[in-house]
Design brief:
single chain; mainly beta; globular; disordered N terminus
């Protein structure tokens, strides 16, 4: 006797989901299709493309060229005119692939907790690792490092996947979010994401496990605590390498490469053929995004109410990915916030671009002050009419921090009666 399908579950204010197979698809067909899908996911795991021809910039020996043989934490091996050479990492500024293939926006975009992103054609997750299918092979990413997944919709063609709903995310969430609907009309469903399969995304809602058709889902946003902001995390700046991919951009502190695999920080694995550029010079530029300040004082406009548990976290600085008119990741800071980071010994300049976080929708303004060892080096009022000519992402900050020990950033109210607006610091970084 067949067990009847349960009645559809009505989500408050949202769509209804049924636990049943797609119409016209038998269980046997589904099993066959799932097996084929899993096989395709595995097939791209070991793939080596054409040898990578590189242009290499060195710190003391000009430029060189050759074919990449291998890369690990100590050196870069290249084949130059049939002769293998080894270059120490600390002498390399930039490695850039010649005639790198171009890739259009993928069907799915994975955003990481540090603002990095990777495009692919499909995605699966059932455990600890997110598997990403790409035209050049398969990638694997620890799920703890994934912030969101966005599937491209018909009206996303000219933009990055998920641009509409990412810009509408609540500033503070208490659970994972499933995004259902379309790019032009969507809503967020609070739940716990359990797995992503070929047909459905499994969630837990009101203590009930529910498979939701993937055709109804346009995105996933996980509740994440950035490791850099966790208790006990160091506020010290540490350099990373800027990694450009075919369909992606990341930052990493450790890089290993073979023709089959690019391994970042020991746990993000991508096809070796995905590499476009490895920039150690930019990597020696240290980003403030996702980095815990050495000291942080937050006092919103309602003063003592900020001591209520949870509200301080809500108003604390938060990392944001590219989108909503901003081409690069950033850090959003609300008034009144004072944050202090420890500068690296060889820090030379602090650069960023500042603008209202809500763009043209912003109301009010804020005053931004930058200090080096309590010495003021920058002060500017920021609102919707204060954009700098020639700088579409806002007002540039470029200050000398050489010899300093601590960098301070304050976002303050302009007047006592103005609740202010959050300020977005795009690409805030210290150059070494």
């Amino acid at each position: 006797m067949r067990t009847p399908s349960p009645p559809p579950l009505a989500l408050p204010g949202g769509p209804r989901f049924r636990r049943r197979l797609p119409r016209g698809l038998s269980r046997g067909c589904r099993l066959i299709w799932t097996a084929v899908w899993i096989g395709c996911m595995a097939a791209g795991n070991v793939r080596a493309g054409e040898p990578l021809s590189l242009r290499i910039e060195q710190t003391d020996a000009g430029a060189a060229s050759g074919t990449l043989v291998a890369l690990d934490g100590t050196g870069l091996r290249i084949d130059s005119a049939g002769q293998e050479r080894s270059l120490p990492i600390d002498t390399v500024r930039l490695v850039e692939r010649e005639a790198a293939p171009k890739q259009s926006v993928g069907r799915v975009r994975v955003a990481l907790v540090d603002g990095s992103w990777i495009d692919g054609e499909d995605l699966a997750w059932d455990g600890t690792v997110v598997t990403l299918v790409r035209p050049d092979g398969r990638g694997e990413i620890p799920v703890a490092k994934v912030r969101s997944v966005a599937w491209r919709q018909a009206d996303d063609e000219a933009r990055m996947p998920g641009a509409a709903w990412l810009s509408a995310l609540p500033e503070a969430i208490e659970s994972d979010l499933l995004v259902v609907g379309s790019a032009t009309g969507h809503e967020f469903v609070e739940c716990a994401i359990k797995s992503v399969g070929p047909e459905s995304i499994t969630v837990v809602l009101d203590e009930e496990t529910i498979p939701v058709k993937r055709s109804k889902v346009i995105g996933i946003h996980w509740l994440r605590i950035d490791p850099a902001a966790a208790p006990g995390a160091s506020g010290k700046l540490s350099p990373s390498v800027a990694v450009d991919l075919v369909g992606g951009t990341l930052r990493a502190r450790q890089i290993a490469w073979t023709p089959e695999k690019l391994l970042l920080d020991g746990d993000i694995s991508l096809p070796g053929d995905a590499v476009v550029k490895l920039d150690w010079a930019a990597g020696r530029t240290v980003s403030l995004i996702g980095l815990a300040p050495e000291r942080l004082d937050v006092e919103p406009w309602f003063g003592e109410l900020a001591r209520v548990p949870g509200l301080t976290t809500y108003f604390a600085p938060r990392a944001v990915v590219a989108g909503d008119g901003f081409a690069r990741p950033g850090l959003v800071i609300r008034p009144r916030t004072q944050a202090v980071w420890r500068l690296p010994p060889e820090g030379r300049r602090f650069r960023a671009t500042i603008a209202p976080a809500n763009g043209g929708r912003a109301v009010g303004g804020a005053e931004v002050v930058v200090t080096v060892d309590d010495r003021e080096v920058f002060r500017r009022r920021v609102d919707t009419v204060s954009a700098e000519p020639g700088s579409p992402e806002g007002i540039p900050i470029d200050v000398d921090v050489a010899g300093g020990r601590r960098l301070g950033v304050t976002v303050d109210f302009v007047t006592a009666s103005d609740s202010g607006c959050p300020i977005r610091f795009t690409s805030p970084a210290v150059e070494q």
